[in-house]
Amino acid sequence: MEKTPEVFSDSSSTLVDSRCSKEEIKPMPDTSVDDLVAHLFSEENSAIRSTPLHNTLNRPINEYFISSSHNTYLRGRQVAARSKLKGYIATLSQGCRSVEVDCWDGRDGQPIVKHGYSLTTSISFRSVIETINNYAFFASDLPLWLSLEVHCSSSQRDIMARTMLEVFRSSLVVEPLNGSSQKLPSPNQLRGKILLKVKVAQNPEPLQETLAPEYLNLDGPQEDLERGDCQDLPGDLLQSLAVYGASRRLPKDAEFDTHRNFIYSVSERNFKKHTKDHRSLELAGTQHLVRVYPDPNRVDSSNFDPLQCWRHGVQMAALNCQTEDFCKSLNQAMFHGSLGYVVKASPQSTQIRLQVDILMARGLKVSTGNEPVYVKMKLLAPDTSNQKRRTTTMLVQGPDVAFDENLEMSVETNYPHLTFLQWSVKTMSNGRTMPISSGIAKIDNLKEGYRVLPLGEPLNNEGRLLCKISI
Predict the structure, then answer these.
(1) Are 15 and 40 in contact (CB under 8 A)?
(2) What SMART domains has UniProt attached to this entry (predicted)?
């Protein structure tokens, strides 16, 4: 790959302003036309910020949206796919900060991971934990949540707990950082740490005691955690390891426990019912978190729209990350450059005006020449109708397609921090509209000026769309 000339800085794309007169526009010294074009279409001139603005990591962890996955162990349809370690590797490599481990009794006395009551295959619990340990902080060092769905007997629950203590060692959070689990620490305080989400009884006692020191000697030899020690462990070691992740069902009467924090698990269907009844899931003034997961009837492992979850304050919108669809792309745009944690913002009525001059598409991969193509843009906000605009149709007669057309959109929303721009290049074939490539980004993450929008989906196209963006 050719390197972009270093004469350009990040502000170079805004040097040429359409509001300037011809006399004010002066060429940059020692810069050729080829260098200018190379810079304009380079990755360094991307319209998407590499890191979000104002994303502090020092607030309590319940004040963040967290990149979360569902059925992480699957690589296909949830009724007949193979359970694979590659699911965890791929998801963690993408920066996801919450993975699911569905645990069942193994026939040989060792717990296994699989999708229950289906034709999916299984993998050993230990191999899953070892894989997670190897890749937990590959893409992000911010805290990783393990959402444990436990269907095991008491003896195999103990094996699960002992295995995680042995493998994760000092990375596993086994006691509150400040001596109490009622106040949640920040992502910064939990860097490099692994937290467990485990379902507990509906009326547990407040967490007042920590595990005895002999069970937390994680720097000692692994022999300290041999099977023979099982009978000496506390009553339910696994449940006691859910220091910040004790999981419960959402109470019907909305009377939330105030003794300690919980993660409330809600199905997609119940979430929709809950929000339809105008009951908030933000749990204002509490330390609780909410995790929404796809309905079991999504046998094709499709996804729900996470945007409505975020609108209602849900921290963990758990998606089927093995499925490449718009909802996954939206989730990736939400957490782009954030290391998996995006701080919440209070609703604020805002008028967003967006002007995009569509100049040229480069690198489009179409099957034949002379194909009609056009650019479509969509402004998405969670509390209003989507705004759509498109260019006129142009014929593809080479690697570049010039549009030179202005698209303007505006939307009034209470959630400017949850507003997105989607762009796509489409073609017409036999009277049908076919997508060539597309992309999506948060409005907050867009840069102004002459920039390129990447075209990477759905055909893994490496093309780029040169635009002038004004917000």
Answers:
(1) no
(2) PLCXc, PLCYc
| pLDDT per residue as tens digits for the range 250-281 | 766 656 666 667 898 889 998 888 787 666 56
Contact 468/449 with Cβ under 8 angstroms? yes
Mean pLDDT of 427-456: 89
What angle in degrees, to the nearest 10, is found between the helix axes of 86-93 and 125-135?
20
State pLDDT tens for residues 414-439.
999 999 999 999 988 777 888 888 89
What whole-number distance in Å separates Cα of residue 154 and Cα of residue 78? 27
Give Cβ neighbours of residue 456 (< 8 Å, ≥ 6 apart): 437, 438, 439, 462
DSSP string, 168-195: HGGGB--S-TTS-SSS---TTTTTT-EE
β-pairing, 98-104 vs 112-113, is antiparallel
**Residue pair 297/28 in contact by the 8 Å Cβ criterion:** no
Rounded CA separation 420/443 (Å): 5
Tell me how far apart the alpha carbons of residues 151 and 118 are, in angstroms, rounded to a whole number. Answer: 14
Instruction: Enumerate the active-site residues.
Output: 70, 115
Domains of the chain: 1-45 (no CATH), 61-343 (3.20.20.190), 347-470 (2.60.40.150)
